[in-house]
Amino acid sequence: LTMYNVRIRYVSPRNLQMPDDVKQYVAKKGIQQDEFESLEDALPETDVLYMTRIQKERFQSQAEYKTSIGQYVLNPHLMTKAKKRMAVLHPLPRNEEISVDVDSDPRAAYFRQAENGMYVRMALLAMVLGKC
User: Under 8 Å CB-to-CB from 75, ≥6 apart: which residues?
Assistant: First the structure.
């Protein structure tokens, strides 16, 4: 992303913030970065929302994980705060971070993303196996 004219908006609990070395690298490339603890605060100015699951293995305790997991759930109510043409991406599979009620929203691009990824992997395998 540092090769493009973008603005990066990180949304995460404090204990899972982007590492400083990554933020410094991005800053050296002249990319503006903003940090948010609330998905709702970040959404209004976001063009592409790339979500991932909150990874249980990154937490010190089960209790800490449980307090964070429900804080970052994209649902239809939050989507009303987003731009009409925002795209929602996710590497799948998802846990609880995107409500299934968002799946029918035209901005939900994660199933198309997964399908396109499958075709890219098929093409790469064909090239590696000399089938092209």
Answer: 99, 101, 102
- Whole-structure pTM value: 0.87
Taken in order 126, 128, 131, 132, the sign of the CA dihedral is positive
Distance CA 114, CA 120 (A): 10
What sign does the dihedral 104-108-110-116 (CA atoms) show? positive
In terms of Cα–Cα distance, which of 70, 10, 7 is closest to 41? 10
Decide if 74 contacts 98 (C-beta within 8 A).
yes
State phi, psi for 27 to the nearest 5 degrees: -65, -40
Over pLDDT 90: what percentage of the chain? 74
Tokens of 127: 């090239």
* 99 within 8 A of 90, measured Cβ to Cβ: no
Give the 3-state secondary structure of residue 36.
strand
